[in-house]
Amino acid sequence: MLVFPLNGHSCETDVKNSRFIAEILPITDPEITKIRQQALKEAHPKANHVCYGFRAINPEGQVVEGFSDDGEPGGTSGPPILKVMQHHNVINCAILITRYFGGIKLGMGGLQRAYGSSASDAIMSFGKENWVEWRPVKTLCIRCDFKNEAQARYIAIEVGAAVEEEQYSETGVALTLTVTEDQETLLRNHGDARLFEITSGTP
To answer: Residues 1-49: pLDDT tens digits?
Structure first.
């Protein structure tokens, strides 16, 4: 089961005097991660590194992943963060970790463990109620005449679909919906589905 965060969260851990401040950031666009990384660098000018891992669902429904070691030895920070996210099936999320060096070198293995533990602590300390199951959505179009528009809207709301757009013509209305697989099944099997035409995609 894939999960995504409802909102942001942060926590801090200390490893041999080094501070690791982990932040969970909800994202849909991976580029937001780089923007947030820069903002954290500006907010923590004395920090040595701001590393991250991210996982997001692209418009084709594929999981896109990435990371940044931000000057730490290659593979010691970003990949451990990403590995923890994969283990917990986290998506549409970035975890950024700001590190203040404490004067004691941790070594390659020590850095990997520290960044991995920091990411894991951030996820585990964020209550289960703040993680939501991700379900793939698709776009549908409902077409109906004007007299059935109100009923079509009511049915869409009844099954939990989101009405994203409406287009009016001389013959009626086309409603663009985003739905999960379960919602599509409910919509197509609804007793009043005969009142409108359902097609995949936009009008």
So the answer is: 899 999 999 999 999 999 999 999 999 899 999 999 999 999 999 999 9
pTM of the model: 0.76
Q: Residue type for 201, please?
A: G
Comparing CA positions, the residue from 57, 70, 66, 72 lying closest to residue 106 is 72
**121-166 tens-digit pLDDT:** 999 999 989 999 988 888 899 999 999 999 999 999 999 988 989 9
Q: Which domains does the chain have, with CATH numbers?
A: 3-133 (3.30.230.30), 137-200 (3.30.70.240)
Cα–Cα distance measured from residue 132 to residue 40, given in angstroms and rounded to the nearest whole number:
26
Beta strands in the chain (DSSP E): 3-5, 9-15, 18-26, 49-57, 63-68, 93-100, 131-133, 137-144, 162-168, 173-180, 197-200
* Backbone φ, ψ for residue 30 (5° rounding): -55, -25
**Cα angle at 138 between 136 and 143, to 5 degrees?**
155
